[in-house]
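Title: Prediction job returns without error message
Component: structure pipeline
Severity: low
Priority: P3
Assignee: unassigned

Description:
Job completed but the reporter wants confirmation the result is attached to the right record. Sequence as submitted:
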Amino acid sequence: MPPQTQHLLWVVGLFAAYLVGFVLLYPRLGDAVSTFIFVPILGAAYLLGVIGGVGTWVFGVIVQIVVIQLIDSQGWMAGLHLNAILGLLGILPVAVLVGNLRSTSKRLQIELAERKKAEARLNESQHFVARIADTIPDLIYLYDMRDNRVLYLNGRAEALLTQHNLRTHQSVQSLLNAVLHPDDVQLFKDIPGVFDDVRDGEFIETDFRMRDGHDGYRWYHIRSSVFGRDSQGKPRQVLGLARDVTELKQAAALAHEREKTQIALEKERELTRLKNRFMMTISHEFRTPLAIILSSSELLERYYDRLSEERRNDCLRAINVQIRHIRDMLGEVSLLLETEARKPAFMPSLGDLAEFCEKIKVKAETASNHSHPISFTAAGDLSAILFDENVLDTAIKQLLTNAIKYSPPGTVIRLDARREPDGVTLAVQDAGVGIPADDLSRIFDTFYRGTNVSHIPGIGLGLKIVRDYVALHQGQVHVSSEEGSGTTFTVRLPLRYT
């Protein structure tokens, strides 16, 4: 039976008992017995609330009037004294008060029951979350920065502390000193300051080392965020998760070592290929000039008296030309080896680039016995340009030498210098044999030569030197060419250097 129905039956029973007592006692006690109506009224107010109490009071008064009319021939007003009326009126506010107290008590009981249910659900939820956290192999902690104490550790973290005979009630500093690598302790000391600028939802991540219980250390990756703030909005509590990444670190280190080994092997293979190519190139390129020198010297040695003056001079000129050729090749090799062994110093200074180019032009024409005229043009203000004369001289001189070597005698070589808003451009253009399209991507490689110039002496180092020396100048070199129509090399240099 529902509680409300039980309460109603109690009220009906009390009122029925009162009514029987009123009918039996009224002839002897008179209207004094009417005051006993407070029993069912207060009972109704307590059991049914304010409405039940007031309703019972009204119903009781009406019933009394009817009963008195039937029992006492003098009538209600004649038989009812003032004290009875005051008693009936006085019981009404008491009934209301009792009803209110009952309603308040019932509401409090309901709220208390709901609160207990909520607490039970909360405890169940916390227990569920704690069970989940304890099954995670990662370390989970909750740290109060203001009180400098640990608020929570999951089972894995608790087990780690127990392994080191530590407890959460110990000071945070003692815990850090006991489990962290000495080099990583300061990292955690700086945590409060790190979180000052961290917003909700953002994470701070770092790696650290922790003792493993066997006189060794394991790597952990920690990910922390602000969990709670104080009344001023400053971070107070930090929630963190630390994952053991030792195996990942070891795998990464192993992969890095393998990569370094692979790179070293590739470099060694490339070096071996370069050495082999160098020996093949040198042996091939030196064979012809040495043969010419040998044959010319033998002619002079054996038939000097029989040779005419002109023929002797031809032999001497041939020897001289081939010696110069060998000297130039050895110079390129020496320059490359010097660059590879020790990076040349880059010391830029302000200078007149137009005047510098004019000097290079004259030296190149002289070196080629004026076989190729060189046309130089300058555009823009080049009077105060920051550059390294030695470095740039090597690069531009090599480009002019190549242009002369691979162009028919008498053709004009162009050297252009231009000042631009963001730098300086130097271009060397010839009307020579050009470079095949398939060779353009490798033309700057060491010992690489175009497939169409095998009949022209060279060892394939000049453009490699040009690229390296332009790179020292923090610049770039580009090539545009068409086989049989000439080649243009463009060097772009910055106005300022970092």
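Comment from assignee: result matches the submitted record. DSSP finds 13 helices and twelve strands in the chain.
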